[in-house]
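The records we work with from here on pair a chain with its fold. Taken together, the C-alpha cells spell out the fold as the letters spell out the chain. To see the layout at work, look at the sequence and C-alpha cells printed below.
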Amino acid sequence: MAMWEGAKENSESKEFAGVVKRYKKMLSEEQMGFFDVADFEHIADHYIDKNQLTNALQACEIAISQHPHSITVKIKKAQVLIGQLKTDKAMSLLKMLSGIESTNPELLLMLGNCYSIQGEETKAYDCFRKAEKFSFEDRDELLYNIGAGYVQNTDYQKATYFLEKAYQENPKNDSVLYDLAFCYDKLGEDDKSIRIYNEYLDIDPFAESAWYNLGIIYTRLEEYDRAIEAYDYALAIDENYASALFNKANTLSTVERHEEALIYYFDYLRFDKNSSDARVYIAECYFQLEEYTKSYHYYKQSIQIDSNNADGWYGAGVVLMVEENLTESLIFLKKAIKLDDSCADFWSAFGKVNAALDHYEEALIAFKKSVEIEESNADFWIALADFFYHYDQTDLAIQTLFRAESAVSENVQLLYKLTGYLTENNNLQLAKTYLNKALTMNYSLHTEMFLDFPTLQSKPWIKKFIEKFQ
C-alpha cells in the first residue's frame, strides 16, 4: 500500500510542477490560459511556500477572474492577505464569505486569526469555538492550528484548551503532542509535560529538541541525573546542539561535577567564541576546584569581552578576596555593584572585604544593604551578626539574629549562632532554649557551632544537651 501511495505522491508532484511551469509560461507570454480551481490552489501554495506573497495574490486574482463563484479561491486570497498583514482587506472578504458559508470551519479559523492579529481576542475566541463546532473532517488539524496560534501569542492557557481537544481527537499527532508538552511546560505542569514529551518521543525518538526540553524540566525539578541523560540523548542525535552542551555543563556544575562541566563549557565555546557568560561559568568551576589562577583568568576574560558583565567583576573580586588581595578586590566589587546594585551577594562580599580592611562604616552599610535586598536569606543576617561580633558588639549580633528570626523561615545555622552569642553573653537560659531547638531540628550540624565558638565544647551543660540528643 505504501508503495502505491509513494507513486501517487510522486505523480502528483510531477503534475503540480507541470501546472506551475505552464502558469509561469502563461504570465511570461502574456497569454491567458485556463486553470481549474485545484490548479490555482497548487499555484498559490507554491508561492506561499516560497514566501512570494505578491505572486500568490496575483494567482488568486487571476483565479477569481476565471472562477468568480469559487469560495475556495477567495478563502485562499484571504489567507494570502493575512500573510501580508492586510487584515482589514482579509476581514472584509471573509465576512462577505461567512454570509454565504457561515459554518465553514476553515473560513471561521481565518476570521479568528484576523481578529487575533487586530487584538480583538474575545471575537477571535468566538470564531475559533464556532470553527471547532462545525469541524468534522481533520478536526485534530483544525484544533491544532487554533492552539498553535495561541502558542505563538504566548497565551498558553487557551492554547492548552484547544491542543488537549486535538490530542483527544488524535493522540498520535506529533505536532499536537510537541506543542501540548511545550504548553504544559510553560504553565508549570511538569508531570503532564514529561508524560506528553515521552509520548512524542515514542513517535519520534530522534527529536533532539524534545530531549532538550525534557532536560530543562528535569533540571527545574532537581532531577539532575535524568536531566543529564536527556541532554545526552539530544547530543547523541546532534553533537553540535550548542544549547544542550551549555545546559548539560550547567547541570554538571550544579551537582559539583566541575571537571566534567568544564569539558562541555569549552565545547560550547566552539559555537559562541565570544560568550562572556560561558567564561564566568568556567571561572566558577575553576573556583570550586580551588584553581584560583585559572578562575581569575577566565573572570578577567569575561569582562574583557563584556565590560558590563557584573558577575565577571564580582567573581574576580571574590577570587582576589580569597587570595587576600583585598585592596584590588574592592575595586572589582565596587564595579560589580555599580553595574548591579540589586544583588545581595555583591554587597555581602563588599562588606566582608571592607571588614577585613577594618573599614567599619563601609562594611556596615554593605552588610545592611545585603539584608535589605534579601531579607529572607539567613546567610546575610548571619554575616551582619558576625560583623558585629567581630567588633565585640555581641548585643548587636544577638539583636540582629532576633530580627532575622521574624524574616527567615526556621534556619538551624541561625539557631546555633544564637546559642553561641547568648552563651558568650551569659544569657544561659535563652541559650539553652535555642540549643534545644537547634538540636531538635538538626543534630549533626552542632559541630559547626564549635568551629565558630570553640570554647563551648568544654561547657558541661552543652555536653549534657548533646549527649541527650545523641
About this structure: The chain has 27 helices and no strands. The CA atoms of residues 29 and 36 lie 20 Å apart. Residues 2-28 form the longest helix (27 residues). Confidence is low (pLDDT under 50) at residues 1-12.
